[in-house]
Amino acid sequence: MTNASIFPKIEAPQTDERPVTDTRHGVTRTDEFAWLRADNWQEVFRDPSTLDPAIRDHLNAENAYQSALMEDTVELQKRLFQEMKGRIKEDDSSVPMKDGPFAYGSSFKIGGEQPRYFRTPRDGGAEEIILDGDAEAEGKPYFRIGGVDHSSDHKRLLWAYDDKGSEFFTLHVRELSDGKDISDQITDTGGSGVWNASDDGFFYTRLDPNHRPSKIFFHALGDDPANDRLVFEETDPGFFMNVGGSRRNDWIFIGINDHETSEYRLLSMADPHAEPQLVAARETGLQYDLEEGGDIFFILTNADGAKDFKIMTAPVTAPGRENWKELVPHEPGRLILSVLGYQDFMVRLERKEGLPRIVVHDRKTGEEHMISFEEEAFSLGLGGSYEYDTDVIRFSYSSMTTPTQLFDYNLRTRDRVLLKTQEVPSGHNPEDYVTRRLMAPAHDGELVPISLIYHRDTPLDGSAPCLLYGYGSYGIAIPASFNTNCLSLADRGFVYALAHIRGGKDKGYAWYDDGKREKKTNTFLDFIAAARHLVSERYTSHDRIVAQGGSAGGMLMGAIANMAPEAFGGIIAEVPFVDVLTTMLDDTLPLTPPEWPEWGNPITSEADYKTIAAYSPYDNVGALAYPPILAVAGLTDPRVTYWEPAKWAARLRKLKKDANPVLFKINMDAGHAGASGRFSRLEEIAYNYAFALKVTGKAKAEPA
């Protein structure tokens, strides 16, 4: 099948070339499309109408082009959307979680795009809507709710929203007695806040003009925000910062970190005006997280060579590193992911042999037990509890064939109560699908896990199309969880596969280390190895594999397109980080300094420059035969700026040696996460799936 023949012959947008040169470490590069980066990008994030008209015209032309190429899939997109929507319980509701006299939860109404937040009496009763997302979003093309936090006296609600997609959140305080917001509105925040012990004020993070969380403030209710007290300022632009609180309401945690180093400062609620207390000074490569434990802190850390982390304790009166004592030792290959502390128990989520597990530690006896599961591959979520003095926590479980189940678990009696099973209104029979876990041999002998699902009637003779998804950065593992959307592909004969490649922590921390900085190409080679293994095992064939990834996974898409274009029949790159070298050389961009530990600093290091230059997708576009490529972006995205995929699409069209199209679709009303409403997001997924079906010749296939 010639992929180009399935698209109408329409001329792609012509992109002006205005060459700009840049010389670093004796190397000169020319960027002919640099003009697509708006000089006033900071202003555009806040007010998209200020975008240079020439750039706007070009982006509109790109949207017109991709729309014309995909016009014959409009009805297919509608069918896919209706299928995916039909698998969602429209009036779905969470199981409320208890906190004092109330239980708090969220729900959707039929046809609603945004969540509603509610509370009931602790042991059940009438729902009280405390925040209606649909009402707040009315008339706004983009709307996303950030943090929602009730005060400990249950009288007020602190909530945040972003109505541009640029992730500058506005904080509001709502009186729950009458449902009205008071005048304490604070703009340019990180999206959440933490109440103080007396519930008459809150701590929050403010973003600087470059979208970096540089300052923690305290706001007293009723005061002018201009007079808010500066609690702490981080002057190093290479570090993220956040503020959180304890369930006992006795501590404020100020967390400071990049991708390999962390630092905490503490503020006692008993003396909130004191200088925040340093726990352990930042030391390159030292990571630690704090969790409350009454008179102690639990400390999850990689100190002393504990690559897969261990758990320490320290007294709250002297939490410095010199007082850390080991509680759970380091065990190579067992990656401890998170820790929750309660009055009588400590609970940890860990991953071993590629699978997650929950372990309960009795603080009095030291006895431990594991919450067990039966399936071969699955995903867990540890929800915990609002309350500290409790024997009951909450967790979720799913697999690629099993809808999400929500449980309350008694830490003392070990009783497990099923609270809710994800409903699929249009119907779902797990027996209709098969899930497998494969191991693909990589270029250096490592084995790359692949999780996959397909319909039981799908022939495994190499004829099935396949959507292969990958990410592989920042240590983020891709869970083998239930995904109702991908069933629309499986029902049309697709094999849906997840490649657990290096750069994530799917096989422990070493799996992450082996896919970053100078070893970054392992990530790309692992993904290519996964594709080739699926072909060798007769699950699919190369011209029927559609690769998909977003953000750093979009960088993966750009890299594999350059390295092995013949291995794929199509590529979907969502908000793709494809201009890696240029972005890492621009220290004014929001995420550049904090990202240097992940990718390297090409400004100061010639070695890092050469490493990034060798794989940066935009810099390595060549005179190759590429498969059809779809790039998707958002205009106000502060994480992966719109001009990266815009430039990439233009350079691909300029240099490639084939007739396959490059489509660039940009949401002019959204940012990194795409459309904000739950159904609007489904429309975007339906578009992507329609592209996958089109390029594999399955656009007219009916679901099983």
TrEMBL record:
GO terms for molecular function: serine-type endopeptidase activity. One of its GO terms (biological process) is proteolysis. Residues 1-25 are annotated as: Disordered. Residues 15-25 have a biased composition (Basic and acidic residues). Keywords: Hydrolase, Protease, Serine protease. Residues 17-421 form the Peptidase S9A N-terminal domain. Residues 481-698 form the Peptidase S9 prolyl oligopeptidase catalytic domain. It comes from the Bacteria. Belongs to the peptidase S9A family. This is S9 family peptidase. It comes from Mesorhizobium zhangyense. The lineage of its organism: Bacteria, Pseudomonadati, Pseudomonadota, Alphaproteobacteria, Hyphomicrobiales.
